[in-house]
Amino acid sequence: MTIDQRLKLLVQLGDYLQSGDELLQAVMHRTAYNNKWLTIDNCKKVAQDIGKNCLNQTALQNWIKHYNYQENTTSKKVAILLSGNVPFAGLQDIIAVFAAGHQSLVKIADSDEYLIPHLIKQMMVWNPASASFFEIRDFIKGYDAILTNNKGNENPYFKKYFKDYPSLIRKEQTSIAILDGQESDEELAALGKDIFANYGLGKENISKIYVPEGYDFHPLLEALHEFNDVILNSKYKNNFDYNYSFYLLNNRKYHANGCILISESKLLNSRIACLHYEFYQDAGTFAVKWDKKFLEGIKYIVSRQAINGLSTILPGATQIPSLFNYADDVDTMEFLMELETIKQT
Predict the structure, then answer these.
(1) Contact 231/261 with Cβ under 8 angstroms?
(2) Number of domains observed in the structure of the chain
(3) What is the pLDDT of residues 201-246, one digit of tens each?
(4) Is 132 helix (H, G, I), strand (E, B) or coil?
């Protein structure tokens, strides 16, 4: 398949994700039954966002043109280890490998056994020539390179096992927000999307906020209460109840609104159904006191206004996918195009 044929197939995939097709809906229902975190509504929302923002002709053409792409002559086998923490996790890696002309050796996550295989199967039905670009495996071997998002960078075993291969083993990341206390109701509602989307399980989700000393939490708690339907998910409610009991037993100070617990902590990552906060005196000092290692653990910094020395986005923007939104800010397409230079295994 040529690059034009592959991009055409990806556009067809984007249309399919937005179509409401009965078969796709059935796969989403099966996924939700298998994993209560991957609800039907969340699957639909992520599918729509990927199809609309990533898999349309304009977005794909602009993406490929950015690299001055030339059809490669040496296809490599790229192992992709999926995490399954949110709906369609790892689809962007599969899209990139396919667009680059390489073969994906996909290790499906037990927590999401159906969504990605279904999409791959559909692409093979639409264009049988695409079958040579995908292979789903229970055990990964015989690969030339590896991509993974399942926190492998923190595992010494991963580093040792894959040390002889070109790899992008992504770090564990989370997102944060810097508030100034002047946020509008609309901005706080948008912040709620960044916190609660996919029950806070993605690295795009905000797990900690920085607030000025004397910050009034009531407007934030009221805005976040609009997302209280998350408590209807039994898995989320179990986490909320457990953490609520934990805070009570440990005499820990917190703010609550029935669907989230907000407590002061120096830690970046918070438990499910929890949000950490930390006070600050001057937001302008963050760029100075946050070193490179600290910033490597952050996917997005959300703020309603620009902060000198930091790259920030507006509230509500963390859940908008983009083909240029690479994990760890490492350009996956550049990595894949450079694979042609390695020796065939």
Answers:
(1) no
(2) 2
(3) 999 999 999 999 999 999 999 999 999 999 999 999 999 999 999 9
(4) helix
